[in-house]
Amino acid sequence: MTCAPGKPCEEGRKRRGAFGILGVMALIFVALSVASFLKSRNQAVPANVSYGVHSAVDGKRVFQAYNCMGCHTLLGNGAYLGPDLTNIYEHAGPAWLEAFLPSAGGWPTATAVQVHLQGSGPSAAGGTNSLDAYFKQYPGAAERVHRRGGGTTHMPNLSFRPNEVARLIAFLKYTSEMNTEGWPPKPKVDGLGFALATPMPGLAAADAGAGNPAAGPDAQAAIDPAAHGGQLVKQSGCTACHAPDTTRLVGPGWGGLYGSTVTLADGSTVQADDAYLAASIRTPDAQVASGYPPGLMPSYAAMLDDDQVNAIVAYLRTLSGAGQ
Amino acid sequence: MIQIQYDTQRLSMRFFMLMLVLFIIQVGFGMLIALQHIDPALLAGTLNFNIARAEHLNLGIIWILSGFIGTILFVGPLLSKRELASPWLIKFLFYALVAVTIWNVIAQSFASSGIAGWWMGQPWIQEGLEYLEAGRVADIIILVGFSILAYVVLRTFPPRKEWNEIHWGLALGVVALTLVWIFGLFFIERQDVSEYFRWYVVHYWVEGVWEVIHISLIGFLLVLLFDANVKSVGYAVFWGVALVWLSGLIGNAHHYFWIGTPEFWQFWGSLFSALEPLPLIFCFWHIYLDAHNDRKPLKNAPAFYFILGSVVLEQVGAGILGFTMTFALTNVWSHGTWVTPSHAHLALFGTFGMLGIAAAYYAVPLMRGLKDYDERMGKLAFWLVFTGMLGMAFAFALGGTVQVFAYRTLGLDWFGGDIFPAMNFFKVLVPVFGTLFTIGGLLIAYDLITMGYRAPAGAPAKTVHANPGGTRFATGWGRYLTGYESGIWLLGMWFFGAVITFGLLSFNLASVQAGNPTLPYLLASIGYPGLLLVTLLFVWRFLASMESRASEPATILDGPSSQALGQAG
Fold it and tell me: Contact, B4 vs B371, CB < 8 A?
């Protein structure tokens, strides 16, 4: 395919020939493309997928607006800092995503997931509001809660606006319904048994705790409510959103909160005393602090009994001097 | 050395300088995200990874384009034997490019608060699609810029019946550059359709348009450097362009394996994109031929170093590494892991980045009126960026192999807990080699920006080896490189490419899927280091043989081969 100077190389004719073949190829390509998006393929489409009242189309807009693809892959395309999101809805389910996304800096605990199972969205979409049944349905959620729950993640907290989390979940529901021709490949082994898997943190502690269930939280509560509260806030996943100092993560920091004057969203003020803090845990939307969207914090009324709420308030009291 | 013949050629200077500045900023963002891969807490909340990465990708595209524009403006008048059309439009293009770059760098940061600037259903500020992160405001300005470039090129060129193949290549390239961009201008609801059209821009740019512009410009730079015959180079350009398009048009199907499009794309993509290395082998072969037209010493060593680097890394990064992951059975594993950036970094910086730098090394001394310049810094910088990039590709590839096993085969999906610790050694290697690369990049920028302004270093610009005999041929590593030997080197590269391919294929074996990674790990740790070392040694060998021409006896400077291929017409 060389052409010496002075010899007739017939570039013009060959170019026309190449364009001709190229045209045939373009026709093949267009035909294949048309066949790819025929309705009869029954590929999932976002306009038909919703989560509660939120459509997956709106979710795609949120997904793009936060440039999620800049850290994660979706359908394998994107960046490689975080895991692929294509099937995360199918693996971890809506309640886990609802617990995770607003406070992405921390891994949700079992209580945090259960709190969200009470909500209408996840239980309607997931079909259950029992944590055990949920974990059976979404083994990925069980794995995440048991191995990572309460720990910190590599993802920064994003300040989602109201409904953006639900829209994202709608979009992820759509992508997990897509037919991706078998990608990603299904693992044939349980990777958790291999050396590359980090040993479960707290596995030993859980075993020890399981040994004498009688010496559980109640026994400790009798000793020191504040210390008990300190454990409860970790177990319940409160610390994913609340820092023990004045740092604002997702919700307000607890340092110096007790006894301070809180400005509410309607402009009125209230003293952060025992009653206010307990009420904020049980019915957070009743008196939302100014600067925080309502509905962000779920109600813990069904999760924590009176003793436990009191223990948490006692713990918060010990932080009243912190950070001031 | 030729003189600047046309005043408007000097308009390319500003684009080369912009290219160098943006290159350095892009490398800075690259170093940042490499460090964030090791410590994701670094600047988290201030400059999140996704934003730094968007800047890294977009600046990479912009500086490569800036280099293309500079090169096209420099060679345009030479190709057309007249001044560029509408110089004022080119000046406007430059300011528009600077403005849109600054705007886009700022606009990307809105992703951390989820602001895309939705208006009329379109994201106007930024849109969070990999490579196409720019919002509509920037998109439209860029479209106008491309149109200006296409207009200027077509207006400058002589009437079409006087076109040679290089005219054809460049003209098709700049027009297609503009047309393909249009497919990225719409928000699409369906993820599969959205990805389908995203690859229209990304794939057809890189594997259609950019390669066509690359082949044409490489061809013309070889004409300039070696006085090669325009007609015979042009004929090679024709075949290169034809092969790129005939393989790449349907080759785009390799992006349609897993995005929700039907299974039949796996057949078309595997078949046609396996042909995509053909034009690259052809280009590789031609640089050998053109460089061995005669045995005259190199006129401008750094320019040739980077041209050779561009063609060789195109062969290795785009051709061989692309080939390894282009089959559905290998791509199913490599897709979405660190295996892919090893290919992408070598291919994009190697092929296109090095071309812009080569053109700058050719054009800047001419425009500054330097008869000769100190080539040592350019040569050193070449070796730094070349080895740095090969090293990064090595780290990405092996880190990716570990990732494939842990993430896909074992199904571990806790990145912080399982995947990162497994990949950690290779994650650390990336900024280590990245530092080499950064130093090389800084040297390039310093050398080219200050060339002609700084005090001469005092040493002779060209090292003429003391050669007491005066008639001795170079022997050993610097001896004449025959075509046969080049073929053996190329075969060596492809041998290791085959090893890598088999390594990726071996993930399909039942024993590997049962949890035994020995075979893929073994093949990857032979294949990748082997390929990258052969590449390094080949370029070293090629350049050593070119360098030793300076000390060869003058009587053979015009060898018989030069008459066979003819002098510049």
Answer: no
* Contact between B332 and A185 using a beta-carbon 8 Å cutoff: yes
Shortest Cα distance, chain A CAs vs residue B43, angstroms = 10
Asked if B115 reaches chain A (Cβ–Cβ under 8 Å), the answer is yes
In B, minimum Cα distance to A157 occurs at B45
Please measure the distance between the N-terminal and C-terminal CA atoms of chain A and give it in whole angstroms: 79
Structural contact between residues A298 and A285, judged by C-beta atoms closer than 8 angstroms? no
Q: How many CB atoms lie within 10 A of CB A53?
A: 11
Digit-coded pLDDT (tens) for B27-38: 999 999 999 999
Domain span holding position B378: 297-451+483-558
Domain A47-177 has CATH 1.10.760: yes
Residues 6 or more apart whose CB falls under 8 angstroms from that of B49 comprise A70, A71, A79, A81, B33, B36, B37, B40
With vertex at residue B491, the alpha carbon angle to CA B489 and CA B495, rounded to the nearest 5 degrees, is: 120
So what's the ipTM on this one?
A: 0.93
Q: Which of residues 74-113 of B touch A (CB under 8 A)?
A: 108, 111-113
DSSP state of B113: G
**Domain A217-318 falls in which CATH fold?**
Cytochrome Bc1 Complex; Chain D, domain 2 (1.10.760)
Residues of chain B with pLDDT under 50: 461, 463, 465-466, 468-469, 555-569
Residue B268 at interface with chain A, using a CB cutoff of 8 Å: yes
CA A103 from chain centre, in angstroms, equals: 8
- Decide if B539 contacts B312 (C-beta within 8 A): yes
Q: Which of residues 370-409 of B touch A (CB under 8 A)?
A: 403, 405-409
Q: Classify residue B565: in a domain, yes or no.
A: no
Q: Is A69 on the interface with B (CB under 8 A)?
A: yes
Residue B368 has which token pair? 């500054």
Report if pTM > 0.80. yes
CB contact at 8 A, A233 and A312? yes
A211 pLDDT higher than 50: no
List A residues 214-273 in contact with B (Cβ-Cβ < 8 A): none
Report the residue of B191, B507, B508 to disrupt the A interface, i.e. the one with the largest count of A CBs within 10 Å. Answer: B191
Q: How far is A275 from chain B (nearest CA, A)?
A: 34
Largest distance between two CA atoms of chain B: 78
d(CA B313, CA B214): 13
In a domain, B240, yes or no: no
- Phi first, then psi: what are they for A212, rounded to 5°? -135, 85
Could you read off the pLDDT of B510-530 as tens digits, one per residue? Answer: 999 999 999 999 999 999 999
DSSP assigned state of B9 = G
Q: Name the residue of chain B whose CA is nearest to A75's CA.
A: B259
How many Å apart are CA A231 and CA B542, to the nearest integer? 67
Structure tokens at B58: 């977009």
CATH number at residue B554: 1.20.210.10
A191–B123: do the CB atoms touch at under 8 Å? no
Q: Where are the domains of chain A?
A: 47-177, 217-318
- Residue ranges in B39-190 assigned as alpha helix (H): 49-80, 87-108, 136-156, 165-181
Strands A77-78 and A73-74: antiparallel
Q: Domains in chain B: how many in total?
A: 1
Q: Which of A44, A47, A189 is nearest residue B515 as measured by Cβ atoms?
A: A189
Contact A282/B at CB under 8 A? no
